[in-house]
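Good morning,

Attaching, inline, the backbone tokens for the sequence recovery test we're adding to the shared suite. The designed sequence is right after.
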């Protein structure tokens, strides 16, 4: 990856298109699971989303392998796709973008209040 790709995010676009191409080759129920996995993982993305690319690649690889082995989607991710995604993102307590924004807001309010009070 060169500097220009890093700045523009073109490497991420290329990688995302490759993921979508791979996902299109999956059976319908696996494609639906992939759609749900990406939707549930996006809140855990950093500013650029680069931190999710290895996780998404691994999740898609798991779906590809298990589909090729003839397993059902429920054998792979179970009935709780959101819980599966939480585990992928780092387990319970993993910080989402909402958590980071909330912490930043709380710090800013506390800073303002300390200026007013002191």
């Amino acid at each position: 990856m060169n500097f220009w790709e890093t700045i523009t995010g073109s490497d991420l676009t290329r990688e995302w298109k490759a993921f979508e191409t791979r996902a299109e080759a999956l059976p319908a129920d696996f494609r639906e699971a992939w759609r749900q996995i990406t939707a549930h993982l996006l809140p855990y993305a950093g500013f650029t989303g680069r931190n999710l690319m290895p996780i998404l690649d691994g999740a898609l690889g798991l779906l590809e392998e298990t589909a090729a082995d003839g397993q059902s989607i429920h054998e792979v991710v179970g009935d709780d796709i959101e819980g599966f995604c939480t585990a992928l993102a780092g387990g319970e307590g993993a910080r989402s973008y909402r958590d980071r924004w909330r912490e930043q807001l709380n710090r800013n309010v506390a800073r303002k209040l300390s200026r007013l009070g002191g």
